[in-house]
Write a structure and sequence with these properties.
By secondary structure, the chain is an alpha+beta fold. It has helices at about 35-45, 65-70, 90-95, 100-110, 115-120, 125-145, and strands at about 10-15, 20-30, 55, 75.
Amino acid sequence: MGKTKRGKGTKIMAVADRAGLPIAISVGSASPHEVTLVETTLETRFSEDPPERLIGDKAYDSDPLDERLKDQGIQMIAPHKSNRTKPKTQDGRALRRYRKRWKIERLFAWLQNFRRILVRHEHFLDNYLGFVHLGCMIILLRSCF
């Protein structure tokens, strides 16, 4: 999201299942890096069981994040950055799953069909999060019928 009437921007973090339906969603400032927001997003999940794997882009290439998620029983799949100096930790077998990352992009495209989510008019973050949750509920209901 770009600059809005209420600040520099808002970042929506989401976790989707195999079908691209939302499992966890959180909203925050656009300033912090995605790596610092992963655990808070996983805490807001709709299901009780944690996901087995998380697929992220190159921004999620972080060894401390991999270790923290591994302690929770979650495997992080993210390609390495081009400027990585440490030894590689991902092999080609796990990175084949990276091709399925388009499903989370499709979820964000579905969310951006709602104008109240695309353009943040709400002054309070909790009100905006409520509209994001409402959009997720509509997406889940559309998938059922």
